[in-house]
Write a structure and sequence with these properties.
CATH topology: Pectate Lyase C-like
Distance between the termini: 77 Å
Number of strands: 20
Strand content: over 45%
Largest sheet: 18 strands, mixed
Order of helices and strands: HEEEEEEEEEEEEEEEEEEEE
Helix content: under 10%
Structural class: mainly beta
Number of domains: 1
Length: 243
């Protein structure tokens, strides 16, 4: 019995090592770009992984997704709607020469309340986002550009991701890690709750009050007449009033 148990354990370990050592398939883009479409219905959330250039239009007209990519990449692009969420990502175990690939998503949707982007996504929302609460999460050198007007706004930025934003919110809660940056003096909030790490920086306008925790040479640059309720700064981090 003991010998049998040992053999089973060794077999399980061999499976793990085999799966871990399996190399991703390398795909070189063909250069022949073709377009495919996808029908969606009442989506208001985006979940996109990969270095796509994403253009979003908010419209009351017909919703849909246009995917422009090299013809030999389409088969590896997973796209599906899960309830009110659009999910687009590459299948596992492939590596793509992204520098030469064409990967464009053109999305038409009626409303937008939540974005998750990872893997060097570049996302632009062409129309103003109006919602009660908006949530944005970016990782892996991803970028977001848009105008947001909401009662509350939460954001998580990691891994050298950036946002360029205008608009306003009543409450802004942001977590920033790993050399991320927010460009947003034209974005105003009544209250700010910020947690920054790793040489990150945010620029914005704060009207009423702020609570800031910052470490690792991170910084908050702000305009407005906000009172600093609390601050916990370390590692050459700072809060700077501008203008």
């Amino acid at each position: 019995m003991k010998t049998k148990s040992i053999l089973l354990i060794l077999f399980a370990i061999s499976i793990v090592f085999t799966s871990c050592s399996k190399k991703n398939e390398f795909i070189k883009p063909s250069g022949n770009v073709i377009t495919k479409t996808m029908s969606v219905d009442d989506i208001n959330k985006l979940d996109i992984e990969g270095p796509y250039n994403v253009s979003v239009s908010l419209t009351s007209d017909e919703e849909g997704v246009i995917i422009e990519a090299d013809d030999n990449l389409h088969q590896y692009i997973e796209r599906l709607q899960i309830e009110d969420r659009l999910v687009v990502k590459f299948t596992q175990n492939i590596t793509v020469d992204y520098e030469t690939a064409t990967l464009n998503l053109i999305i038409s949707m009626k409303s937008l309340i939540n974005i998750y982007g990872a893997g060097a996504i570049n996302l632009i929302v062409n129309d103003e986002i109006n919602t009660d609460h908006f949530h944005l999460e970016l990782s892996g050198a991803s970028n977001f550009q848009g105008k947001v007007n909401s009662n509350s706004f939460s954001a998580i930025l990691t891994g050298a991701s950036d946002i360029n934003i205008i608009g306003s919110t009543g409450e802004f809660e942001v977590i920033v890690e790993g050399a991320c940056e927010m460009y947003g003096f034209d974005f105003a909030t009544n209250t700010l709750d910020a947690d920054l790490e790793g040489a990150s920086r945010i620029n914005l306008t704060v009207n009423n009050s702020m609570d800031v925790k910052a470490s690792g040479a991170s910084s908050v640059y702000y305009k407005g007449d906000a009172i600093i309720n609390s601050q916990k700064l370390s590692g050459d981090s700072k809060i700077v009033k501008v203008g």
